[in-house]
């Protein structure tokens, strides 16, 4: 057993933290320890003012001409270019628009069509059985429409799907890089290489990766990616999502099914026949929201601000230090309370969260913690999920969170009936 | 020739206008005459404050719990119920989400599948050749994917498509109720009845109707509708769009292709298989944006405020009075300048805009008017488009707009080179 970790030791970590100044970028509620940035990122200080300017000046005063004068028309690409810097992509390859689900529909459609054009016998989409459900639902829809089979397997069974007879029928491997429930991270480079060796393409969902862990889409030779704007990118609730396509998939005309006018080569010529724009702009569909994109840009800027302080490598180092600290504190202080750690202890397999499992009362314990000002969330079955956002969390927050967890468990206060009432959204 | 209409006569119309108080709901730039509310509605006074509250309090302070406490999760339906009151629909039938293009993809998919289930020989989608292009592009995509033919005809040729051999192969009639370029309005009840008599379904795009003209979806027995939040609903640039389905199309399980998690029967049970929610909620896909929905709600509220002053009938009466006035003033004062009116003179066929055509210089004349503070827009080829929003326009605005048009034409100032420079967005 290691010597007990003290609050003073955590304060010392904060004093030495090169990313500590980044916390000032956020408007955090006083007294709250927010461990749910993997569900909804915190509010950047810049956002409210920037959104006001878009509403009052760009919309209210300049009205329709802001499409030109304020650059609204290029906003999806401009924000996309900023996101590209966080995920190992190049300018012109990322676009911010629509939702993750809608974007997945687009890129998975294109990926399936691309594989089909080369080998019509490849009719299987493989994904993880407990991948985030919206990804599975979208894949199910495309499979049903176009005669593919969606095959759901356990994480450990994925490699076997990429070789032999299974590999020969594989069209697309669809995975979320960091698992929403357990925080387990897939080896992107290895799985991408193995899928390519099998003759298939890979679509990565970066919902729990972008802004949280280093992502190297080009280095991994990935094919397509989608991701979320409202988690670690701090873009606000329901923020536009993003999508990326490797340039080799953007070389020809991209016929994605949601062929709305903003993805047309010349939308303001109002011609009746669809001609896709060149490059990633072909993945646009309807009219973008400059208000939502302005908020997203403020959020992305909070992550880009880390560039001067060590970049995503520094973010990753602090993230691992925090999740290690949390896990060590839980081991030292919560022993005997029936908690087990679901997130891999090996840093190479871990995202920026720690998920604990408890057979009884997990939901109520999360509610009791929230009542004390420690906000994590519950994910069925039995998971207490804690996200660690290095941009605005301190090591003393981790210590305090575990202190509250100890008290909730030791006191049994979670058994109170009010903590068992289910909310609509968990 | 009628006697000249004077500015004083227009001022008298304003003095007698029952809707005049509604103008106070908007933050309009001083000195600007805004005749482009059919492209981007003006900013309601309530919007900036409401959005600030969503950002600073609901997001910033209450964070993730606002999905429950602020009712974010039900916002698409709550705003949809308000829109329903403007389009002759009932509560629970309308949902505000995504873009018009994305929503059209959903409802057109369901409409095509529904017709196919009854009669697989129906393989034709009929639309208007110069329908708003994004509608045609989405229809083209679905036709290409599922083996339908998209047949584009002139407006006058539509009735012939609904009878005889053409009627027998018709699956869906897809029309925009009020034409974006000419302002011509289709007879919704008649065309819907004729399409039904032929055995087909009808999808209506209400982009230039909702909030501008009375729409009676139930009375017309329409099947599906989509519409835009940022035009006459004043929801702000890129606002969420809406969709409606007649209850007879919501009775069973609705399998729309964009089957994201928010359309699932139980999204927070995180089950791997898709089961559509009951009712119109099955048309949700990804996570909605409470920020964007709050702005849209403020816009919809500006239209609902007319209810106490005569409702959409009063809005329609003022709209027709304004477009009549504009047309009469152009006839009286711009004769000999090569302008022709493209919008139907018969009120029954007219939306809330007037489109003028000029063979030469239409784009530059629009730019010269904008430089004078009269904002209309240009639509190729040769169209000067002027939208009249009864909620915030006065009859003297109409008079002043034509006065400026007379001066631009008489002076020839539109020939100045700066008015011929093309912007990215026209």
CATH topology group of the largest domain in chain A = Aspartate Aminotransferase, domain 2
- Estimate the helix proportion of chain A, in percent: 25-40%
What is the count of distinct domains of chain A?
Answer: 2
- Strand composition percent of chain A: 5-15%
Order of helices and strands of chain A: HEHHHEHEHEHHEHEEEHHEEHEEEH
**Straight-line N-to-C gap of chain A:** 36 Å
Structural class designation of chain A = alpha/beta
The first-level CATH class of the largest domain in chain A is given as Alpha Beta
Largest sheet of chain A: 7 strands, mixed
Poorly predicted ranges of chain A: none
Radius of gyration of chain A: 22 Å
Categorize the overall geometry of chain A. globular
**Would you tell me the overall average pLDDT of chain A?**
97
Quaternary: homodimer
**CATH evolutionary superfamily of the largest domain in chain A:** Type I PLP-dependent aspartate aminotransferase-like (Major domain)
Tally of extended strands of chain A?
Answer: 13
């Amino acid at each position: 057993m290691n010597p007990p970790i003290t609050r003073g030791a955590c304060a010392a970590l904060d004093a030495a933290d090169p990313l500590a100044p980044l916390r000032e970028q956020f408007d955090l509620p006083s007294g709250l320890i927010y461990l749910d940035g993997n569900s909804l990122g915190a509010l950047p200080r810049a956002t409210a003012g920037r959104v006001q300017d878009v509403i009052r000046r760009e919309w209210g005063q300049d009205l329709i001409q802001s499409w030109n004068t304020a650059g609204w028309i290029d906003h999806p690409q401009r924000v996309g270019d900023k996101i590209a810097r966080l995920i190992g992509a190049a300018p012109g390859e990322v676009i911010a628009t629509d939702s993750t689900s809608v974007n997945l529909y687009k890129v998975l459609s294109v990926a399936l069509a691309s594989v089909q054009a080369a080998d019509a016998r490849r009719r299987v989409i493989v994904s993880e059985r407990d991948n985030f459900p919206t990804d599975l639902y979208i894949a199910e829809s495309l499979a049903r429409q176009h005669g593919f089979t969606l095959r759901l397997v356990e994480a450990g069974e994925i490699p076997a799907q990429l070789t032999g007879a299974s590999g020969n029928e594989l069209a697309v491997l669809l995975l979320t890089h960091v698992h929403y429930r357990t925080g387990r991270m897939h080896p992107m480079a290895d799985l991408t290489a193995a899928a390519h060796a099998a003759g298939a393409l890979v679509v990565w969902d970066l919902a729990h990766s972008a802004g949280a862990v280093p992502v190297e889409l080009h280095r991994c030779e990935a094919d397509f990616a989608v991701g979320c704007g409202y988690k670690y990118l701090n873009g606000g609730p329901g923020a536009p999502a993003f999508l990326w396509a490797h340039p080799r998939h953007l070389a020809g005309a991209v016929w994605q099914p949601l062929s709305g006018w903003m993805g047309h080569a010349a939308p303001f010529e109002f011609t009746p026949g669809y001609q896709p724009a060149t490059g990633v702009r072909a993945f646009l569909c309807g009219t973008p929201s400059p208000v939502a994109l302005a908020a997203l840009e403020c959020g992305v800027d909070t992550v880009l601000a880390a560039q001067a302080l060590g970049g995503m490598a520094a973010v990753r180092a602090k993230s691992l230090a925090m999740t290690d600290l949390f896990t060590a504190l839980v081991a030292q202080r919560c022993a005997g309370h029936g908690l087990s750690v679901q997130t891999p202890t090996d840093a190479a397999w871990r995202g920026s969260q720690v998920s604990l499992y408890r057979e009884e009362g997990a939901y109520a314990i999360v509610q009791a913690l929230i009542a004390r000002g420690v906000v994590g969330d519950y994910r069925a079955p039995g998971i207490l999920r804690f996200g660690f956002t290095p941009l605005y969390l301190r090591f003393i927050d981790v210590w305090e969170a575990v202190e509250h967890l100890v008290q909730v468990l030791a006191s049994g206060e979670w058994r109170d009936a009010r903590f068992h009432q289910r909310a609509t959204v968990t």
